[in-house]
Amino acid sequence: MNNKTKISSANTNKNLSTTPSNQQLSYELIKTSALTALGTSIFVAMHHQYRKQRQPEARLQDYIRGAQARLNAFSVLSSPAKTSTPAKPLIRLRCAFDAAKRAYSNPDETNANKDKADQELAALYTTTRLARPVCWVSGVAAIPKNMSAHDDSEDNSGNDFGVVGIDADRQLVWQTLMPERVHDIVVQPISNSRTATDKQSRDVVVMGRRPSERFWVLDAATGRVKRAIKASADRHFYGHACYSLDGNRLYVTQNDTITLSGKIGVYNARNYQKIAEFDSYGIGPHELIMYPDGETLIIANGGIKTEQASREELNLDTMRPSLVYLNLRDGQLLEQITPEHNQMSVRHLAIHDNGTVAIGIQFQGERHINVPLVLIHKRGDTQFTPLVMPDNQWQMFHQYIASVAVDSEHDQVCVATPMGGCAAIFDLKTHSLVDTVRLPDCAGVATNFEKSGFIVSDGHGYLSALHVTNSEAKADNQSSKACIVVDGQQHLMSFDNHLQALS
Question: Whole-angstrom Cα distance, residue 370 to residue 74?
Fold first, then answer.
Protein backbone atom coordinates (compact mmCIF):
# COMPACT_ATOMS: atom_id res chain seq x y z
CA MET A 1 0.00 0.00 0.00
CA ASN A 2 1.47 3.37 -1.03
CA ASN A 3 1.59 6.46 1.18
CA LYS A 4 -1.36 8.12 -0.59
CA THR A 5 -3.57 5.13 0.07
CA LYS A 6 -2.54 5.04 3.74
CA ILE A 7 -3.35 8.74 4.22
CA SER A 8 -6.75 8.32 2.55
CA SER A 9 -7.54 5.32 4.71
CA ALA A 10 -6.52 7.19 7.84
CA ASN A 11 -8.71 10.17 6.95
CA THR A 12 -11.65 7.87 6.30
CA ASN A 13 -11.23 6.17 9.68
CA LYS A 14 -10.96 9.58 11.35
CA ASN A 15 -14.20 10.81 9.73
CA LEU A 16 -16.02 7.64 10.71
CA SER A 17 -14.84 7.98 14.28
CA THR A 18 -16.15 11.57 14.55
CA THR A 19 -19.52 10.89 12.90
CA PRO A 20 -22.31 10.53 15.53
CA SER A 21 -24.14 7.24 15.59
CA ASN A 22 -27.86 6.88 14.92
CA GLN A 23 -28.34 6.25 18.63
CA GLN A 24 -26.66 9.57 19.50
CA LEU A 25 -28.79 11.44 16.93
CA SER A 26 -31.97 9.92 18.32
CA TYR A 27 -30.94 10.91 21.86
CA GLU A 28 -30.25 14.52 20.80
CA LEU A 29 -33.57 14.70 18.94
CA ILE A 30 -35.52 13.42 21.94
CA LYS A 31 -33.66 15.80 24.25
CA THR A 32 -34.35 18.81 21.99
CA SER A 33 -38.03 17.85 21.57
CA ALA A 34 -38.47 17.44 25.32
CA LEU A 35 -36.90 20.83 26.05
CA THR A 36 -39.04 22.47 23.34
CA ALA A 37 -42.23 20.89 24.72
CA LEU A 38 -41.29 21.94 28.28
CA GLY A 39 -40.57 25.51 27.18
CA THR A 40 -43.79 25.71 25.19
CA SER A 41 -45.81 24.37 28.13
CA ILE A 42 -44.30 26.96 30.48
CA PHE A 43 -44.99 29.77 27.99
CA VAL A 44 -48.59 28.64 27.43
CA ALA A 45 -49.17 28.35 31.19
CA MET A 46 -47.83 31.87 31.80
CA HIS A 47 -49.85 33.34 28.93
CA HIS A 48 -53.00 31.51 30.05
CA GLN A 49 -52.60 32.88 33.57
CA TYR A 50 -52.32 36.38 32.07
CA ARG A 51 -55.46 35.82 29.97
CA LYS A 52 -57.46 34.49 32.94
CA GLN A 53 -56.92 37.78 34.76
CA ARG A 54 -58.65 39.63 31.90
CA GLN A 55 -60.89 36.92 30.49
CA PRO A 56 -62.26 34.69 33.27
CA GLU A 57 -63.91 32.47 30.64
CA ALA A 58 -60.56 31.65 28.94
CA ARG A 59 -59.76 27.96 28.53
CA LEU A 60 -56.66 25.95 27.58
CA GLN A 61 -58.63 24.43 24.69
CA ASP A 62 -58.45 27.83 22.96
CA TYR A 63 -54.74 27.23 22.27
CA ILE A 64 -55.42 23.87 20.65
CA ARG A 65 -58.16 25.36 18.49
CA GLY A 66 -55.91 28.24 17.43
CA ALA A 67 -53.00 25.90 16.66
CA GLN A 68 -55.23 23.74 14.46
CA ALA A 69 -56.40 26.80 12.54
CA ARG A 70 -52.81 27.95 11.99
CA LEU A 71 -51.67 24.52 10.83
CA ASN A 72 -54.54 24.35 8.35
CA ALA A 73 -53.66 27.79 7.03
CA PHE A 74 -49.98 26.79 6.74
CA SER A 75 -50.85 23.75 4.64
CA VAL A 76 -52.76 25.96 2.21
CA LEU A 77 -50.01 28.56 2.05
CA SER A 78 -47.50 25.78 1.28
CA SER A 79 -49.50 24.46 -1.68
CA PRO A 80 -48.27 25.15 -5.22
CA ALA A 81 -49.37 28.42 -6.73
CA LYS A 82 -51.86 28.43 -9.56
CA THR A 83 -51.03 29.48 -13.06
CA SER A 84 -52.26 32.96 -13.86
CA THR A 85 -53.17 34.67 -17.06
CA PRO A 86 -50.62 37.03 -18.65
CA ALA A 87 -53.04 39.95 -18.28
CA LYS A 88 -52.74 40.12 -14.47
CA PRO A 89 -49.14 41.42 -14.23
CA LEU A 90 -49.90 44.04 -16.85
CA ILE A 91 -52.92 45.33 -14.91
CA ARG A 92 -50.93 45.38 -11.67
CA LEU A 93 -48.12 47.26 -13.37
CA ARG A 94 -50.53 49.88 -14.63
CA CYS A 95 -52.15 50.20 -11.16
CA ALA A 96 -48.70 50.64 -9.61
CA PHE A 97 -47.83 53.27 -12.22
CA ASP A 98 -51.10 55.12 -11.51
CA ALA A 99 -50.36 55.04 -7.78
CA ALA A 100 -46.88 56.49 -8.31
CA LYS A 101 -48.25 59.16 -10.62
CA ARG A 102 -50.90 60.16 -8.07
CA ALA A 103 -48.19 60.66 -5.45
CA TYR A 104 -46.65 63.48 -7.52
CA SER A 105 -49.79 65.08 -8.91
CA ASN A 106 -52.78 67.11 -7.80
CA PRO A 107 -55.25 64.82 -5.97
CA ASP A 108 -58.24 66.64 -7.44
CA GLU A 109 -57.07 65.83 -10.96
CA THR A 110 -56.55 62.14 -10.28
CA ASN A 111 -59.65 61.06 -8.29
CA ALA A 112 -61.27 59.58 -11.39
CA ASN A 113 -58.12 57.60 -12.22
CA LYS A 114 -57.87 56.39 -8.62
CA ASP A 115 -61.46 55.18 -8.63
CA LYS A 116 -60.83 53.32 -11.89
CA ALA A 117 -57.62 51.78 -10.57
CA ASP A 118 -59.32 50.66 -7.34
CA GLN A 119 -62.12 49.03 -9.31
CA GLU A 120 -59.69 47.24 -11.61
CA LEU A 121 -57.62 45.99 -8.69
CA ALA A 122 -60.60 44.75 -6.70
CA ALA A 123 -62.19 43.14 -9.75
CA LEU A 124 -58.87 41.49 -10.56
CA TYR A 125 -58.76 39.93 -7.11
CA THR A 126 -62.25 38.42 -7.19
CA THR A 127 -62.51 34.65 -7.19
CA THR A 128 -65.83 32.93 -7.89
CA ARG A 129 -65.80 29.48 -6.33
CA LEU A 130 -69.36 28.12 -6.45
CA ALA A 131 -72.32 28.78 -8.73
CA ARG A 132 -74.59 29.07 -5.68
CA PRO A 133 -76.88 31.82 -4.35
CA VAL A 134 -75.30 34.05 -1.70
CA CYS A 135 -77.01 34.08 1.72
CA TRP A 136 -74.51 36.12 3.78
CA VAL A 137 -71.69 38.56 3.11
CA SER A 138 -68.83 39.16 5.55
CA GLY A 139 -65.73 41.26 5.89
CA VAL A 140 -62.47 39.34 6.26
CA ALA A 141 -59.47 40.61 8.20
CA ALA A 142 -57.04 38.05 6.76
CA ILE A 143 -57.30 35.96 3.58
CA PRO A 144 -54.26 33.74 2.93
CA LYS A 145 -52.76 35.04 -0.32
CA ASN A 146 -52.56 31.63 -1.96
CA MET A 147 -56.34 31.35 -1.62
CA SER A 148 -56.91 34.54 -3.62
CA ALA A 149 -56.84 35.08 -7.35
CA HIS A 150 -53.30 36.53 -7.48
CA ASP A 151 -51.35 33.36 -6.73
CA ASP A 152 -48.76 34.22 -9.38
CA SER A 153 -47.21 37.02 -7.30
CA GLU A 154 -43.59 36.61 -6.28
CA ASP A 155 -44.39 37.18 -2.60
CA ASN A 156 -47.09 34.81 -1.37
CA SER A 157 -46.41 35.49 2.30
CA GLY A 158 -48.88 37.31 4.53
CA ASN A 159 -52.59 38.02 4.24
CA ASP A 160 -55.01 40.52 2.75
CA PHE A 161 -58.25 42.25 3.68
CA GLY A 162 -61.33 41.22 1.80
CA VAL A 163 -65.03 40.44 1.52
CA VAL A 164 -66.64 37.03 0.97
CA GLY A 165 -70.04 35.77 -0.19
CA ILE A 166 -71.38 32.73 1.70
CA ASP A 167 -74.05 30.22 0.67
CA ALA A 168 -76.71 28.38 2.70
CA ASP A 169 -74.22 25.63 3.62
CA ARG A 170 -71.76 28.27 4.89
CA GLN A 171 -69.40 27.64 1.99
CA LEU A 172 -67.66 30.47 0.13
CA VAL A 173 -69.28 31.48 -3.17
CA TRP A 174 -66.85 34.30 -3.97
CA GLN A 175 -64.14 36.37 -2.34
CA THR A 176 -62.84 39.82 -3.22
CA LEU A 177 -59.65 41.42 -1.91
CA MET A 178 -59.98 45.03 -0.76
CA PRO A 179 -57.32 47.76 -0.60
CA GLU A 180 -58.03 48.39 3.10
CA ARG A 181 -59.74 46.82 6.08
CA VAL A 182 -63.53 46.95 5.85
CA HIS A 183 -66.25 47.21 8.51
CA ASP A 184 -69.96 47.10 7.78
CA ILE A 185 -71.55 45.24 4.86
CA VAL A 186 -74.89 46.62 3.62
CA VAL A 187 -77.22 44.67 1.35
CA GLN A 188 -79.59 46.53 -0.97
CA PRO A 189 -83.27 45.67 -0.25
CA ILE A 190 -85.34 44.21 -3.06
CA SER A 191 -89.03 43.64 -3.67
CA ASN A 192 -90.49 40.28 -2.60
CA SER A 193 -92.07 39.98 -6.03
CA ARG A 194 -88.70 39.59 -7.69
CA THR A 195 -87.39 36.15 -8.67
CA ALA A 196 -84.53 34.41 -6.87
CA THR A 197 -82.19 35.33 -9.73
CA ASP A 198 -83.20 38.98 -9.53
CA LYS A 199 -82.64 38.98 -5.78
CA GLN A 200 -79.00 38.05 -6.36
CA SER A 201 -78.60 40.88 -8.89
CA ARG A 202 -78.36 43.71 -6.39
CA ASP A 203 -75.72 45.81 -4.74
CA VAL A 204 -73.68 45.19 -1.63
CA VAL A 205 -72.03 48.27 -0.11
CA VAL A 206 -68.76 47.64 1.74
CA MET A 207 -67.74 50.40 4.15
CA GLY A 208 -64.11 51.04 5.02
CA ARG A 209 -63.20 50.80 8.69
CA ARG A 210 -63.43 54.21 10.38
CA PRO A 211 -62.04 56.73 9.69
CA SER A 212 -62.01 55.58 6.06
CA GLU A 213 -62.75 58.00 3.25
CA ARG A 214 -64.03 55.30 0.86
CA PHE A 215 -66.73 52.74 0.34
CA TRP A 216 -67.23 50.22 -2.47
CA VAL A 217 -70.26 48.87 -4.31
CA LEU A 218 -70.09 45.15 -5.15
CA ASP A 219 -72.33 42.82 -7.10
CA ALA A 220 -74.03 40.49 -4.61
CA ALA A 221 -73.95 37.44 -6.88
CA THR A 222 -70.31 37.57 -7.99
CA GLY A 223 -68.45 39.93 -5.64
CA ARG A 224 -67.32 42.08 -8.59
CA VAL A 225 -66.55 45.67 -7.62
CA LYS A 226 -68.82 48.04 -9.53
CA ARG A 227 -67.91 51.39 -7.97
CA ALA A 228 -65.47 53.00 -5.53
CA ILE A 229 -66.86 56.10 -3.80
CA LYS A 230 -64.77 58.76 -2.05
CA ALA A 231 -65.98 60.96 0.80
CA SER A 232 -66.71 64.60 0.04
CA ALA A 233 -64.46 67.39 1.28
CA ASP A 234 -63.99 67.66 5.07
CA ARG A 235 -65.72 64.34 5.68
CA HIS A 236 -64.77 60.78 6.56
CA PHE A 237 -66.98 57.75 7.06
CA TYR A 238 -67.74 56.05 10.37
CA GLY A 239 -67.97 52.50 9.02
CA HIS A 240 -71.75 52.00 8.65
CA ALA A 241 -74.55 52.68 6.19
CA CYS A 242 -78.10 51.57 5.40
CA TYR A 243 -80.47 51.61 2.43
CA SER A 244 -83.97 52.99 2.27
CA LEU A 245 -86.56 50.22 2.21
CA ASP A 246 -87.09 50.64 -1.55
CA GLY A 247 -83.31 50.43 -2.14
CA ASN A 248 -83.17 53.80 -3.94
CA ARG A 249 -81.21 55.75 -1.31
CA LEU A 250 -78.11 54.99 0.76
CA TYR A 251 -77.54 56.71 4.13
CA VAL A 252 -73.98 56.84 5.48
CA THR A 253 -72.67 57.97 8.88
CA GLN A 254 -69.98 60.63 8.50
CA ASN A 255 -67.82 62.97 10.53
CA ASP A 256 -67.37 66.67 9.85
CA THR A 257 -63.60 66.89 10.21
CA ILE A 258 -63.76 70.63 10.92
CA THR A 259 -66.46 70.83 13.62
CA LEU A 260 -66.26 67.10 14.59
CA SER A 261 -70.06 66.91 14.51
CA GLY A 262 -71.92 63.89 13.18
CA LYS A 263 -73.47 63.93 9.71
CA ILE A 264 -75.61 61.58 7.62
CA GLY A 265 -74.72 61.56 3.93
CA VAL A 266 -77.53 60.72 1.49
CA TYR A 267 -76.55 58.99 -1.77
CA ASN A 268 -78.52 58.12 -4.88
CA ALA A 269 -78.32 54.31 -5.14
CA ARG A 270 -78.33 54.38 -8.95
CA ASN A 271 -75.02 56.20 -9.40
CA TYR A 272 -73.98 56.63 -5.72
CA GLN A 273 -73.60 60.37 -6.00
CA LYS A 274 -74.16 62.35 -2.81
CA ILE A 275 -77.42 64.30 -3.04
CA ALA A 276 -78.04 65.58 0.52
CA GLU A 277 -76.76 65.66 4.08
CA PHE A 278 -78.47 65.66 7.48
CA ASP A 279 -77.23 66.40 10.98
CA SER A 280 -77.04 63.30 13.22
CA TYR A 281 -77.79 65.47 16.27
CA GLY A 282 -74.81 64.00 18.04
CA ILE A 283 -71.11 63.14 17.91
CA GLY A 284 -69.55 60.06 16.36
CA PRO A 285 -72.57 58.45 14.65
CA HIS A 286 -71.84 54.77 14.12
CA GLU A 287 -74.49 52.28 12.99
CA LEU A 288 -77.82 53.40 11.55
CA ILE A 289 -80.89 51.39 10.52
CA MET A 290 -84.28 51.97 8.92
CA TYR A 291 -87.50 51.98 10.93
CA PRO A 292 -90.22 49.63 9.57
CA ASP A 293 -92.35 52.58 8.40
CA GLY A 294 -89.69 53.39 5.80
CA GLU A 295 -89.82 57.09 6.69
CA THR A 296 -87.66 57.18 9.82
CA LEU A 297 -83.92 56.73 10.27
CA ILE A 298 -82.51 55.42 13.57
CA ILE A 299 -78.96 56.50 14.44
CA ALA A 300 -76.55 55.32 17.13
CA ASN A 301 -74.54 58.38 18.13
CA GLY A 302 -71.50 56.89 19.87
CA GLY A 303 -70.68 60.24 21.47
CA ILE A 304 -66.92 60.02 20.82
CA LYS A 305 -65.01 62.74 18.97
CA THR A 306 -62.30 61.65 16.53
CA GLU A 307 -60.19 63.73 14.15
CA GLN A 308 -59.60 63.06 10.48
CA ALA A 309 -57.58 59.89 9.76
CA SER A 310 -57.45 59.02 13.48
CA ARG A 311 -59.12 56.53 15.81
CA GLU A 312 -58.02 58.36 18.96
CA GLU A 313 -60.90 59.21 21.31
CA LEU A 314 -60.71 62.88 22.27
CA ASN A 315 -63.54 63.32 24.78
CA LEU A 316 -64.06 60.17 26.86
CA ASP A 317 -64.82 62.19 30.00
CA THR A 318 -67.40 64.40 28.25
CA MET A 319 -69.03 61.90 25.90
CA ARG A 320 -72.64 62.46 24.81
CA PRO A 321 -74.01 59.22 23.34
CA SER A 322 -77.63 58.99 22.19
CA LEU A 323 -80.16 57.13 20.07
CA VAL A 324 -81.82 59.39 17.51
CA TYR A 325 -84.87 59.08 15.25
CA LEU A 326 -84.84 61.32 12.15
CA ASN A 327 -87.46 62.12 9.53
CA LEU A 328 -86.03 60.96 6.19
CA ARG A 329 -87.74 63.68 4.17
CA ASP A 330 -86.11 66.68 5.82
CA GLY A 331 -83.75 65.32 8.49
CA GLN A 332 -85.91 66.68 11.30
CA LEU A 333 -85.21 65.33 14.79
CA LEU A 334 -88.14 63.23 16.03
CA GLU A 335 -86.80 61.62 19.22
CA GLN A 336 -83.50 61.50 21.13
CA ILE A 337 -82.75 59.19 24.08
CA THR A 338 -79.58 59.13 26.17
CA PRO A 339 -78.28 56.21 28.31
CA GLU A 340 -77.95 56.30 32.10
CA HIS A 341 -74.15 56.73 31.97
CA ASN A 342 -72.49 59.21 29.63
CA GLN A 343 -69.72 56.72 28.78
CA MET A 344 -72.15 54.08 27.49
CA SER A 345 -71.31 54.50 23.81
CA VAL A 346 -74.38 53.62 21.70
CA ARG A 347 -72.79 51.71 18.82
CA HIS A 348 -74.67 48.87 17.15
CA LEU A 349 -78.34 48.41 16.28
CA ALA A 350 -80.86 45.87 15.04
CA ILE A 351 -84.63 46.11 14.76
CA HIS A 352 -87.60 43.80 15.28
CA ASP A 353 -90.43 43.83 12.75
CA ASN A 354 -92.62 45.40 15.45
CA GLY A 355 -90.29 48.42 15.75
CA THR A 356 -88.38 47.37 18.89
CA VAL A 357 -84.77 48.53 18.58
CA ALA A 358 -82.00 46.40 20.09
CA ILE A 359 -78.87 48.37 21.06
CA GLY A 360 -75.33 47.13 21.68
CA ILE A 361 -73.22 49.26 24.03
CA GLN A 362 -69.46 49.71 24.24
CA PHE A 363 -68.64 51.13 27.65
CA GLN A 364 -65.71 53.57 27.72
CA GLY A 365 -65.45 53.98 31.49
CA GLU A 366 -63.39 52.25 34.18
CA ARG A 367 -63.19 48.47 33.94
CA HIS A 368 -64.66 47.88 37.40
CA ILE A 369 -67.92 49.69 36.55
CA ASN A 370 -70.73 47.29 35.69
CA VAL A 371 -73.38 48.67 33.30
CA PRO A 372 -75.98 46.94 31.07
CA LEU A 373 -74.60 46.41 27.56
CA VAL A 374 -77.73 45.29 25.66
CA LEU A 375 -80.71 47.65 25.70
CA ILE A 376 -84.01 47.90 23.86
CA HIS A 377 -86.14 50.90 22.96
CA LYS A 378 -89.60 51.53 21.51
CA ARG A 379 -90.83 54.75 19.95
CA GLY A 380 -92.31 57.02 22.57
CA ASP A 381 -90.33 55.61 25.52
CA THR A 382 -88.26 58.22 27.34
CA GLN A 383 -85.69 55.71 28.60
CA PHE A 384 -83.91 52.57 27.47
CA THR A 385 -84.94 49.19 28.86
CA PRO A 386 -81.93 47.01 29.72
CA LEU A 387 -82.14 43.28 29.08
CA VAL A 388 -81.57 41.07 32.12
CA MET A 389 -78.35 39.23 32.90
CA PRO A 390 -78.39 36.68 35.76
CA ASP A 391 -76.73 38.24 38.81
CA ASN A 392 -76.10 41.33 36.65
CA GLN A 393 -72.96 39.70 35.21
CA TRP A 394 -72.49 42.12 32.33
CA GLN A 395 -68.72 42.18 32.85
CA MET A 396 -68.45 38.79 31.14
CA PHE A 397 -68.78 40.79 27.88
CA HIS A 398 -65.74 42.90 28.84
CA GLN A 399 -67.73 46.12 28.25
CA TYR A 400 -67.85 45.55 24.48
CA ILE A 401 -70.69 44.46 22.18
CA ALA A 402 -69.48 44.13 18.58
CA SER A 403 -72.68 43.18 16.72
CA VAL A 404 -76.42 42.79 17.26
CA ALA A 405 -79.00 40.79 15.27
CA VAL A 406 -82.73 40.23 15.79
CA ASP A 407 -84.84 37.20 14.87
CA SER A 408 -88.35 38.68 14.71
CA GLU A 409 -90.08 35.34 14.14
CA HIS A 410 -88.76 33.88 17.40
CA ASP A 411 -88.49 37.17 19.36
CA GLN A 412 -84.78 36.73 20.02
CA VAL A 413 -81.74 39.00 19.90
CA CYS A 414 -78.17 37.75 19.58
CA VAL A 415 -75.03 39.70 20.50
CA ALA A 416 -71.33 38.89 20.17
CA THR A 417 -68.20 40.12 21.91
CA PRO A 418 -64.65 39.38 20.76
CA MET A 419 -63.28 40.80 24.01
CA GLY A 420 -65.34 38.43 26.14
CA GLY A 421 -65.05 35.62 23.59
CA CYS A 422 -68.72 34.66 23.69
CA ALA A 423 -72.13 35.11 22.07
CA ALA A 424 -75.45 35.43 23.91
CA ILE A 425 -79.11 35.12 22.97
CA PHE A 426 -81.87 37.01 24.82
CA ASP A 427 -85.64 36.54 24.77
CA LEU A 428 -87.32 39.81 23.74
CA LYS A 429 -90.64 38.81 25.30
CA THR A 430 -89.26 38.25 28.80
CA HIS A 431 -86.14 40.44 28.39
CA SER A 432 -84.16 37.59 29.95
CA LEU A 433 -81.01 35.75 28.91
CA VAL A 434 -81.62 32.46 27.09
CA ASP A 435 -78.04 31.20 27.11
CA THR A 436 -74.43 32.08 26.31
CA VAL A 437 -71.90 30.11 24.31
CA ARG A 438 -68.14 30.47 24.18
CA LEU A 439 -66.84 31.50 20.73
CA PRO A 440 -63.33 32.98 20.94
CA ASP A 441 -62.85 36.24 19.00
CA CYS A 442 -66.44 36.26 17.70
CA ALA A 443 -67.84 39.53 16.33
CA GLY A 444 -70.19 39.23 13.33
CA VAL A 445 -73.83 38.22 13.91
CA ALA A 446 -76.64 37.74 11.38
CA THR A 447 -80.06 36.12 11.37
CA ASN A 448 -80.19 32.64 9.85
CA PHE A 449 -83.09 33.08 7.43
CA GLU A 450 -82.36 29.70 5.84
CA LYS A 451 -83.27 27.82 9.02
CA SER A 452 -83.68 29.51 12.38
CA GLY A 453 -81.41 31.11 14.93
CA PHE A 454 -78.25 33.02 14.07
CA ILE A 455 -74.90 32.80 12.30
CA VAL A 456 -71.85 34.09 14.20
CA SER A 457 -68.44 34.67 12.60
CA ASP A 458 -65.10 34.82 14.40
CA GLY A 459 -61.42 35.55 13.93
CA HIS A 460 -60.51 31.84 13.91
CA GLY A 461 -62.39 31.31 10.64
CA TYR A 462 -65.55 29.72 12.06
CA LEU A 463 -69.09 30.41 10.85
CA SER A 464 -71.13 29.02 13.73
CA ALA A 465 -74.86 28.33 13.45
CA LEU A 466 -76.57 28.97 16.81
CA HIS A 467 -79.93 27.36 17.48
CA VAL A 468 -81.94 27.56 20.70
CA THR A 469 -83.34 24.28 21.97
CA ASN A 470 -84.65 22.92 25.26
CA SER A 471 -82.49 20.54 27.25
CA GLU A 472 -84.03 17.45 28.76
CA ALA A 473 -86.27 17.99 31.77
CA LYS A 474 -84.75 17.14 35.12
CA ALA A 475 -85.74 14.04 37.09
CA ASP A 476 -87.54 16.12 39.75
CA ASN A 477 -89.97 17.37 37.05
CA GLN A 478 -88.49 20.84 36.95
CA SER A 479 -89.06 22.73 33.73
CA SER A 480 -86.53 22.24 30.94
CA LYS A 481 -83.95 24.93 30.32
CA ALA A 482 -83.31 26.54 26.96
CA CYS A 483 -79.76 26.28 25.68
CA ILE A 484 -77.78 27.09 22.54
CA VAL A 485 -76.66 24.36 20.18
CA VAL A 486 -73.59 25.27 18.11
CA ASP A 487 -72.65 23.93 14.68
CA GLY A 488 -69.30 25.33 13.49
CA GLN A 489 -68.00 25.46 9.92
CA GLN A 490 -64.34 26.53 9.66
CA HIS A 491 -62.58 28.36 6.81
CA LEU A 492 -58.94 29.29 6.35
CA MET A 493 -59.39 32.98 7.01
CA SER A 494 -60.10 35.44 9.79
CA PHE A 495 -63.61 36.93 9.67
CA ASP A 496 -63.95 40.59 10.61
CA ASN A 497 -66.46 42.61 12.63
CA HIS A 498 -69.69 42.32 10.66
CA LEU A 499 -71.77 39.73 8.87
CA GLN A 500 -74.93 40.57 6.91
CA ALA A 501 -77.73 38.38 5.55
CA LEU A 502 -79.36 38.66 2.13
CA SER A 503 -82.97 38.35 3.23
Answer: 41
